[in-house]
Amino acid sequence: MAHKVFIDGDVGTTGLQIRERLERRGDVALVRIDLALRKDIPARLAAFAEAEVAILCLPDAAAKEVVAACDAAGLSTRIIDASTAHRTHPDWCFGFAEMAAGQRDAIRGAARVTNPGCWSTCAIALIRPLVDAGLIDPAHPPAISGVSGYSGGGKAMIEEFESGAVQGSFLYGAAQGHKHLPEITRYGRLARPPVFVPSVGQYAQGMAVAVELDLGVDGIVRAEEALRAHYAGERFVTVVPAATHEPRVWPQQLNGTNRMELSVHGNAETGAATLIAVLDNLGKGASGAAVQNLNLMLGLDEGAGL
Fold first, then answer.
1. Can 93 be counted among the known catalytic residues?
2. Which CATH number does 3-116+286-298 carry?
3. Do domains 3-116+286-298 and 118-281 have the same CATH topology?
4. Which of 18, 68, 239, 269 is the least crowded, having the fewest Cβ atoms under 10 Å away?
5. Where are the chain's structural domains?
6. Would you say 35 and 16 are in contact if contact means Cβ atoms under 8 Å apart?
7. pTM exceeds 0.70
């Protein structure tokens, strides 16, 4: 018997890619509603009731609204939320399986899972193991920067670039209010938010994130050792030699995959270090992560469809 799954909001970029991944599978059956009813709460609740797991690909306010409606209706459907709405909510499980020991099992047993953001997946992947290893002081968080394809900005930004209304790359979030900062702080085990300045490139998808810090003269080697130990045996997260991403880091090189590559760069004489994460912001940074979480929740092969 195929597991029934409902994607609430499968007309957006993330929802479409999740749907494409699931439509190819025989172990999952998608619950569908008439497109004209995609904003109709009763019709959506009926779909939720039919599904084992529902995946929310909605704006934050709409995600909160439908979760409240499910609660009011007494539905027991398990939920994966791809929005920012519940990422630091104490009752929701953070859906980054590789983040820490036990996180994968927590996702398997959770009723509600919140998908990480693309920026935060990269940042937490680099920061959390080094905080746990004592190489980053939580009270003095590192600086974070990076570049993402414009698809990471959602429907409005995609239209801006593809219509020609916006051309070239740009920085944003310089006022330090980026929506991913709360989850980076919480799940990176930082005492306060890091300084984070992201940028958008004039290309569709792919992301590279840099965490910049002073590790001391022996810290660069220790940092790579800590990352390798943390992700040993992982299927989708790999620590690669710095030479893999030098002299240029290409944010698009993992597009179409659910993989993330981490590397440690720096000057051994001064200890100045740059830790880099590369992933597809629509893969491991969004749709791929949602499918990975779905597989865990259904007790299936974690890499099915990926």
1. no
2. 3.40.50.720
3. no
4. 269
5. 3-116+286-298, 118-281
6. no
7. yes
